[in-house]
Amino acid sequence: MSGSLHAIPSARHGGNPLLRLIGLLSRICGIVAALMIVAAVVITCQMIFVRFVLNGSTIWQTEGVTYIVIAATMLGLPYVQYLRGHVNVDLLPLMLPPGLRRVLAVVVMLATLAVSGGMLWYGYEFWHEAWDWGETSNSPWNPKLWVPYLALPVGFGLYTLQVAADFFAMMTGIEKPFGLSEDATLTETHAADAASERAD
Amino acid sequence: MDPLTLGALVAVLTIAVLFSGISVAAGLLVVSAGFLIVFDGMSSLSLIPEIFFGKLDNFALLSIPMFIIMGAAIASTRAGADLYEALERWLTRIPGGLVVSNLGACALFAAMSGSSPATCAAIGKMGIPEMRKRGYPDGVAAGSIAAGGTLGILIPPSVTMIVYGIATETSIGRLFLAGVVPGLMLVGLFMVWSLWSTWRSGQASVLSAGSYSWRERMEILPRVLPFVAIIIGVLYAMYGGIATPSETAAVGALLCLLIAVVIYKLWDPRAIWVILRDSTKESVMILFIIAAAGVFSYMLSSLFITQAIAEWIGTLDVNRWVLMGTINVFLIIAGFFLPPVAVILMAAPILLPIITTAGFDPIWFAVVLTINMEIGLISPPVGLNLYVINGIAPDISLRTILVGSLPFVACMVVAIVLLCLFPGLATWLPDLVMGVAI
Amino acid sequence: AELRLSHQFSESDLRHKVAQMVADEVAAADVDLDIKIFPTQSLFKAREQYKPLARGQVDMIVFPLAYAGGLRNPYNLTLMPGLVKNHDHAARLNDSEFMDEIESILNEDDVMTLVHGYLAGGFAGTEECITAPDDVQGKQTRAAGKAFEQMLAGAGASIASMSSAEIYNAMQTGVLDAANTSSSSFVSYRIYEQVACFTPAGEYALWFMYQPMLMNKSTFEGLTEEQQQALLDASAKAEAYYLEEAKAQDTNAREVFAENGVEIAEMTEEEFNAWQTIAKETAYKAFLEGSPDGQRLLDLALSVE
Ligand code: NA
Ligand code: NA
C-alpha cells in the first residue's frame, strides 16, 4: 500500500535468465489477475443495472463473477509470491544466527514446495474428475465445472514454479534466507526493516 | 487419541509451524495436510482441493478485493490530502487539533475502505510528516495513525466483517451497521485521549499554532464532496434496496476508480496499475489465507476437535463474563501473531457455538472480535499497520511506534469494556435499520 | 465401528432429527455401531457432499439429491415442478419403478438409500399472492432450484439468485418481490414479517424436494449382518417419522403465517396445470436436453398415480 511504483520489493534473479523468465511469468499472471478483478467489478455493476434499472433476470453473473475472482486469486498466487506479499511471522528466523537461519529457510521453502506441489497434484485430479464426469454447476447457467476448476492446477503450478525459483535463488546466494540481511536480528530497527519487506 | 488432547497437539504444532517463517496460508495447509494424513489417511488429501475451492466459491468474498480497491483508488489521489487539510483548517484552533484531524480523517476514510492497512497508508502519507513538522512527538504522530488506521475494519465497509459473516452465516449488512456506533465511540475515545495528553504535555500553545480564515475554511469544503458522495452512494445502494452488501462493493470500487480518474485526473496508466497492483496483492494474500483456513477448519472438524472443545467449555460451568474475558485474552494473543482474517476463520467455528450458548449475541461479538483484531494490527510481530507506518516513516523505530500506540490500545480495551456493559452500542443501529435480529 | 454422517441443517431441523433418530436407534440396538453426526455443514458444504460419499470419505449424508444434478442429470427429476402433487403422492413415488431407477444410478456411484423423504414448500409475495403464473410477471423472484428458476423465468418473473437465508433482508430492502422455498425455511427465517400473502403447500403444491439419507454402499456391505439389520430397522422407523413430520411442517407454516396476519392463498387445480404447462416448455425441456435417457425416466415418474 506504499503507493509508489518502485518502493515495492520483489524476487531477485541475479541475472539468471531462467529466474528472470519465471519472474516475468509471475508478473504476467499478476496483470491478468488484476484485470480479472476489474472485470468482476464491471460485471457486478452490469448485473445490478440489469436487475435494478431494467428489472431483468440475472442468470450467469453471480456465478461467473465468483469463478473470475477465484481464478484471479489462483493466478495471483505466483505474483504475490514474486512480490513477497504472502504474510508470515518471522520471529524465529530473526532470533536465529545466520547458519541456523539458512537451515530453517531451506526447511520452510521445501515445506512450501511440498504444499504447492501437493495442491498442484491433487488440484489436477480434482479438475480431471470434473472433466471426466462432465460435471456442471447445475445452476440455470449450468457451466461445465472443469473450466473454473482449471484455475487450481494452473495457479498452484505457476506458484510452485515461482517458489522453486526463489528456492534456487536462495541456494545460489542470489537471495538471502527469508530475504533478511545477514546482520538482521530481533532488535527493533531491523525487525521493522525486515517486516517492511513483506507486507504493506 | 481423545479429541481434546489432539486439539492441544494441533495448537502446539500450528504455533511451531507458523513461527518458522513460512507464509501463514502455506503453514495452515502444511498442518492440515499433516494431521489429515496421520488421522484420516492419505486418501483424505484428495478432498483438500475441493474444500479449498469450495471456501472461495462464495459470491460474498468477491467484495473483499472490491472494498480494497475503493480504498486504494482514493488513497492514490489527492483526496486523502484534501480530506486531511479540510479537517485541519477546521480543527486547528484546538490544542492537539492536528492529531484530532488525523483521527477524524482516518475515521472518514475508514467509511470508504474495507482494509486497515489501506486506511493507515492513505492518511499517514500526509499526516505523519505534517505532525512531525509541527513538533508533535514521533510516537504520537506514528501511534495515532497506526491506531486510527485500524478503524478501517470496524467502521463499515469491513473485510473482516465480511469474513465473519461468511464464517458464521450472519448478515453482512447487519454486521456493517453494528460497527458504526462502536467505531464512532472508539474514534471519540482516541480524540479525547489525544486532547488530554496534549493539554497535559504543556505544549498546547505551540501545537495549536497557525490559523485559517473563514474564507479558507469554506474554500476547501467542495474538495471533500467526492468523499461524501461516495459514502452516501454506497450506503444508499446497500440499505436502499438496490443491491446486497457484496454487490455494493463493486459499485463502490467502480465509483472510486472513476472519481480517481475523472475528478482527480489520474490519467497515467502506471498510476492506475499501482492501485490495481496493491489491491490485487492484498486481496490475493487475504483470499489465500481464507481458503487455507477453510482446509484447516475442515481438519479440526473432521478430527472432532471443534466439537470436543465446544462441548468441553459447555461443561466448565464458568461465569459467562469470565468466559468472555478468557476468549478476549485468547483473541488478543492470537492477534499478536496472525492477520485478522486468519484469526477469525480459525476461531469463529469453535467460538460461535460457545458464544451463543452462553447467551451472547453473535453480531455484538463480531464487534468485540473486530476491536481485538484492531489491537493485533498494531502489535508485533505481525502487525500489518506497523509495516505501513514503517514504509511511510522508516526512521521512526518500531519501539517508538509501539509506545505511541499503547494509549490507543488502552482506548480499545476501554471500548471493549463499554461494549460489554452496554451491548446496545453494537446492536441498536442494526436493529433500528433492519428490524430485530432473527 | 464408527460411521460419520454429514448434513447441512441446524440441530433443530427435521432432517437432523431424522439423522439423530437413526443414530439413537442404532445405538440402542447395541451392535457396536456408533453414528457421529456433523450438522450445519461443519464437515462439507451443502452441495459438496455427494462426491466424498461416493468415495467413502464420509459414510452417510442427508442430502437434497437434486444438488448432485450437475453430476447425474436424472437427479434433477427429484426437484421438478409439478412432478409431485402432495405428500401421499410422494410416498407412492418412493416405492415406484422410477425410484428404483434412481437407486440403480446411486448404486453405480457406490451409494445407496437408507431413508426416503420429500419436503414441500410454497410461495410468498411481499404485496400480492402468488398462485398462478401471471402473478409473478415482472416480479423479482427467488426460487429454490434450477428447474423452478427456469419455470418462473418462463412465466415472466425476473430471477434473483440468493440463499434462503438472504430472503428476509432482500424482501425488506425491496430487492425481492416474491420467493419460493421450503415450508420450514419460510418459518425459520421469519419471512411472515415481510410478506402480504403466503401460498403454502396444500392440496396442489408445486415444490417438492427429495432429501433422502444416503450411505456409501461398500461401507454398508462391510458391516456385520446384525449391524446392517439394525441400520435398516432404524431407517424404516425414521422414514415413517419423516413423512409424518414433513406433513406437519406444511400445516405449521400455514398456521404461523396466518397467526402473523399474512393472507393465505390456495393454488387451484387449474393454476397447478398452468404452471405444469410452463414447466414442460422450460424446466422439463432443459432437463431432456441434458439426458438421453431422460424421457423414459420422466415418463416413469409421471406414471405414478
Ligand atoms: Na471500513
Ligand atoms: Na499483531
Keywords for this structure?
heterotrimer, A: 200 residues, 67% helix, 0% strand, C: 305 residues, alpha/beta, 7-stranded mixed β-sheet, 5-stranded mixed β-sheet, 11 helices, binds sodium ion, transport (chain B), membrane (chain B)
Structure characterization notes:
- The complex is a heterotrimer of chains A (200), B (438) and C (305).
- Helices cover 67% and strands 0% of the residues of chain A.
- Chain A has 200 residues and is mostly helical.
- Chain A has 7 helices and no strands.
- Chain A is elongated, with a radius of gyration of 20 Å.
- Chain B is an all-alpha fold and 438 residues long.
- Chain B has one domain (3-16, 23-434).
- Chain B is 78% helix and 0% strand.
- Chain B has helices at 3-19, 24-40, 48-56, 63-75, 79-91, 97-110, 116-133, 138-150, 159-168, 172-201, 204-207, 214-220, 225-239, 245-262, 269-302, 305-316, 320-337, 340-357, 362-377, 384-392, 398-421, 424-434.
- Chain C has 11 helices and 12 strands.
- Chain C has helices spanning 14-29, 50-55, 87-94, 97-108, 146-154, 167-173, 183-188, 217-221, 225-259, 269-289, 294-302; strands at 2-6, 34-38, 60-62, 111-115, 118-125, 140-142, 158-159, 178-182, 197-199, 207-210, 213-216, 263-264.
- In chain C, the strands form 2 sheets. In chain C, strands 5, 6, 7, 8, 9, 10 and 12 form a 7-stranded mixed beta sheet that branches. A 5-stranded mixed beta sheet of chain C has the order 2-1-3-11-4.
- In chain C, α1 (14-29) runs antiparallel to α9, α4 (97-108) crosses α11 and α5 crosses α10.
- The radius of gyration of chain C is 19 Å and the shape is globular.
- The model of chain C has no long low-confidence stretch (mean pLDDT 93).
- The interface between A and B is large, with 72 and 83 residues.
- Chain A: It is found in: Cell inner membrane.
- Chain A: The chain crosses the membrane at residues 21-52, 64-82, 103-124, 146-169.
- Chain A: It comes from Salipiger bermudensis (strain DSM 26914 / JCM 13377 / KCTC 12554 / HTCC2601).
